Amino acid sequence: MITGTYDVVVVGGGVIGAFIARELTKFKLSVCVLEAKADVGMGASGANSGIVHGGFDPEPGTQKARFNVEGCQMMRKVTSDLDVPFEMIGSMVVAHNMEEKEILKKLLKQGKENGVKSLQLLDSWELGGLEPSLGPNLKGALLSSESGVVCPYELTQAAMENAIHNGAELFLSSPVTSIERQEDLTYVVHAGEHHLQARAVVNAAGIYSDKVYEMGMEAAVGDEIIEAHQESFHIVPRSGEYMLLDKSEGMTVCHVVFRIPSEMSKGIIVTPTVDGNLLLGPSLNPRADREDTSTTIPGMEQVKEGARRLVPEINLPAVIKAYTGLRATTDRANHDFIVGRTPIKGFYNAAGIESPGLTSSPAIGQYLAEIIAADLEAKLNPDFDPKRKHLRFRDLSFEEQQELVEKDPSYGRIICRCETITEGEVRDAIRRPCGARSVDGVKRRTRTGMGRCQGGFCSSHVVDILAEELGIDPTEVVQSTPGSYILTEQTKMKGEE
Ligand SMILES: Cc1cc2nc3c(=O)[nH]c(=O)nc-3n(C[C@H](O)[C@H](O)[C@H](O)COP(=O)(O)OP(=O)(O)OC[C@H]3O[C@@H](n4cnc5c(N)ncnc54)[C@H](O)[C@@H]3O)c2cc1C
Domain range spanning residue 24? Predict the structure, then answer.
C-alpha cells in the first residue's frame, strides 16, 4: 500500500540530503527526505572538522575539486541566508622542511588550476608573525584566505529547516530497506511504515550510500541492469577521532592549521571552532563497523602527536570532549565523489561524499536539483524563501535582550551557564521545524551542555523542558537514540522531603 506520493524522495538527512532537499524546493516539486536516525545530521555531518576548505587540495578535474571550489564560494551567502555563523578565518598548510616547502608550491599550482582565489605563499618569518604558537622551525606556509569554519550540524539543521519551510517533508527514524520499480517506472521506497511512490530517488546515504545504490540496482530494468552493476562501488569506512579543548584555548591559533596532506587525508589539524573552542584531529584509521563511533587510545595518541607537532606547547589537559566521525570513502581509484545521474533512470547518486563534503554541500545540492528538475521538467518555484532565522540570546545587545525578556520571560532564565543559553532558546529549539526530540538534539541546536561542565548543570532542566514541550513523562525523555533513557523511575513527588 502506497502511503505517500512525491516527485522526489531523498534518502539520507545529512548535510548533503538537507541541501539537496532545500535546492529541490526551489522548483515546483514535492520532496520528501527519509532519514534512518532519530535526528538529522547524526552521521558524518555531525562529527567532522567543520572546515570550509578553499579547494587547493583536491585533484584538478575531479568532482571533489569542482564542488569544493563552488561550495566554498557559495558558503558566505548560504550561511547568511540560513543565519548560521561562518567565520572566514583562513587556513594555512605549514611546511616542516624544504621538501614540504616544495609541496606547498604544488598545492598553490593545483589550487590555481581548480580556480581557487586568494592563495598566498608565506615565508617562515611571515608565518611566525601570524601564528606565533606554531613550532619555531617551520619553513613556510600556504595561506588560503577564503577558507573558514562553520558549525556542521547547525548547517545541516538549518538547510533542512529551510527545506521544510519551503514545503519538503521529513520522516525521521525511517531507514530505507528496499526500493521497487512499478510498471510505469516510478519507484516505491520502503522505510518502515512508509511506502512512498516517487518519480525520482536520490541516494544521499553517506556511509551506507553503497547499500542504497544496491537497492537502486534491484530496481533496475532492461539495459539498465548491466550498466548499473558496472558502476557499483563499495564504501570503506575510515574513522577520524578528535579532541575538543575548552574555550580558554580557542586563541591558541587564529587560522585553520594543516600539515602537508597525504594521498589519503589532510592530516591532523589544529583549528579554532566557530564557537571559540580549539579542535584537534582527525586521526585516520580503517573501521570495519559502520556504527562504531567510539574513540580509541591509539586514535587519541595520533591526535596528540599530530597536534604537538604543529603547536609544541599545546595545552592538552584542557580537553573537554573526544568524538569520532566516519569517512564514507569509496573503493574507487581516486576516492572521488559519485554525484549525478546513474544508469538507472530517475535514480541519482550523491554517494561517497567524504571531505570536503561539508564545504561542497550547497554546490552538490544545487547541481543535483538542477539536473533532477530538468529531467522531471519542473518549473521554478516563485514562492521559494531562502531565509531562516535563529535567535541567539547571547549575541543580542543588552537593550535587545531586555526587550525580548519583557515579551517572553522564558528568555530571562539561563538554562546553560557555560554557554549562556536561555529557557526560551531551548523551547524554540524543540518547536522549530525539524525540532529537537532529545537532550542531544537540544544540545546540537542551542549548545546546552557543550561548555566546560558538559551538561552537569543544564541536563536536568533540559529534560524537564523536553517533557513539558513534548507532553511526555520525564522518564520517557531520551539522551539521543531511541531507548537511551536518562531517568529510570520517579523516586519522589514534587514538594516531598
Ligand atoms: C573525520 C571527518 C572530518 C571531516 N572534515 C570535513 C571538513 O572539515 N570539511 C568538509 O568540507 N568536509 C569534512 N568532512 C566530510 C563531511 O563531513 C562529509 O562529506 C559530509 O558530512 C557527508 O554528508 P552526507 O550527508 O553525505 O553523509 P551523512 O552526514 O553521514 O548523512 C547520511 C545520512 O544518511 C542516513 N542513512 C543511511 N542509510 C540510510 C537508509 N537506508 N535510509 C535512510 N537514511 C539512511 C544516515 O543515517 C545519515 O544521517 C569530514 C568527514 C569526516 C568523517
Answer: 4-45+153-234+333-375
